[in-house]
Fold this sequence. Notes:
Number of strands: 3
Helix content: 25-40%
Largest sheet: 3 strands, antiparallel
Structural class: alpha+beta
Number of domains: 1
Shape: elongated
Order of helices and strands: EEEH
Amino acid sequence: MKFVISVNTDEDGIYIAECPVIPGCVSQGQTEEDALRNIREAIKECLEVRVERGMPH
């Protein structure tokens, strides 16, 4: 599956990655690469939880 991911920086220079189609699926990293790697893991975990709870995925 492919998901759209947005990446922005906060006021401290931390990269914030979000997957808008999965509510609450957000991660961060010191670099953009870190944030992207972390959001991929967060997406996987969010989808696993949604399946466990019988929610749409």
